[in-house]
Amino acid sequence: MSKKSVVIIGGGPAGLTAAYELLKDKGAQDYDVTVLEASGEFGGISRTVRHGGNRMDIGGHRFFSKDDRVMDWWKMILPLQGAPSYDDKKLNRDHDMEPGGPDPETTDEVMLKRHRVSRIYWHGKFFDYPVSLKPQTLKNMGFLQTMKVGFSYLKSLVHKLPEDNLENFYINRFGKALYGMFFEGYTEKLWGRHPSVISADWGSQRVKGISIKAVLKDAWGKLVGKQKQAGEGETSLIEEFWYPKYGPGQLWETVAKHDEEFGAKIIKHAEVVKINETPEGKIASVIYRDVNGLDHVLEGDEFISSMPVKDLVDSIAAGDQNKEPVPADMKKIADGLPYRDFVTVGFLVDRLNLKNETDIPTLGNPPIVPDCWIYVQDTSVKVGRIQVFNNWSPYLVQDVDNKVWIGLEYFCNEGDDFWNMSDEAAIDFAAKELLKMGVIASKNDIQDSHRERVKKAYPAYFDTWYQIDDLIKWLDSFGNLYCVGRNGQHRYNNMDHSMASAFEAVGNIKSGREDKKNVWSVNTDKGYHESK
């Protein structure tokens, strides 16, 4: 029996996972797999950027999932540490090691166990994220604000708003006062739109089961000594996660290496520009453009796409003319799908002007704050989050004992004033915000910097997104086309969701299942989000 040819568009988590699942266990006997990656790197937004001996995680990626298939898969690619990492040793940190696991001090292909610390920066003060019920929280808010928050929450318990937008979704779970403090301004920073015009579906996928009730439950669990492990509990309350020694890109570079060993052909700098159909209405081939601007035709039996839906439909519309044109209403929906783009500005600094007032020991001279992320709810600055890469993995920073490597995350639109800034102007803008917030004391503390831009980082939930079900139905009509991943489904998927969509697509190809409901249902089923 001849092999079935499968073309995979995109070398991110979904695409590389699909190739792996098709070819593992001698799958090369049955499938001829080609992966087309438009850039020169693997991992998409989950890649790791190298600069000046340091590594930058684009967007921050905590490796945890409630899907055991994903957790087992990650551990298979990069085994869990079996000995203390550099910072474990320096800080006398004790946590469970994997029996027989590799030593991160001598082995590169290893997954670290990390403790998550994230806080909110609001009016010059730090709050736990999610908000915890600690004396320091009440002190930071003050008596009057605490009373306002408390009564506002009680009101939300008895007066539920219709959840037809993200604003009402938040108010129902936190009360209007807390929503105004920590959600309204930050959400508008993230999306460039007020929460009242964004679908509540975004909240159900990202905030999921989090509410004051969930925070109380979590606080009670800590009080009685209940420990959560990676993948257990609500997403935003996860305290332990896994992390590749050299950042998320290391995992996807390793997966790509395995894919090629299994028999996959991976072509970098291959931008899909046209998609051709058969007379029967299936996908016949793709045309990709190489780094030299030359076009190549690649035929296939099955096609798995993680490219942005907007670009996918444009490519179908640009295909051969021996077919019906893309219906005008489908093209209109695809053209109107909104995205939010992303800029990270990295700074290597001598010190942070922030004191570690927690009981968590940290590296550095002087010691740094323990945060992985700092969420900046202050609307007087544009920055949305600050990553402290030292705390993700000590191996991301060349001189982790004496330097702090941070990343300022900005949300913007491709082509707007911030996106179009030169590297020098964007770095200067970010440096001034660091000073304004008091994160650094002087520009002289900055030793190095780097600006990185990411297109279509966040599929957004407004404008023509409300008609996306019609577009999904049309895309599914091609039969041999499977849309996977964050941008492939125009859904704010985490890495594990993107991988799960690839699992489902590959399962359909192998079994011959025709409907794709299972592929599209990843990250929509409420049951997926419930605690184990």
UniProtKB/TrEMBL annotation:
Biased composition annotated in UniProt, kind: Basic and acidic residues: 87-98
Region of interest (Disordered), ranges: 87-107
Gene3D superfamilies: FAD/NAD(P)-binding domain
Residues annotated as domain Amine oxidase: 14-459
Superkingdom as given in the UniProt entry: Bacteria
Transmembrane annotation, as ranges: none
PANTHER family to which the protein is assigned, alphabetical: UDP-GALACTOPYRANOSE MUTASE
Name this protein carries in UniProt: FAD dependent oxidoreductase
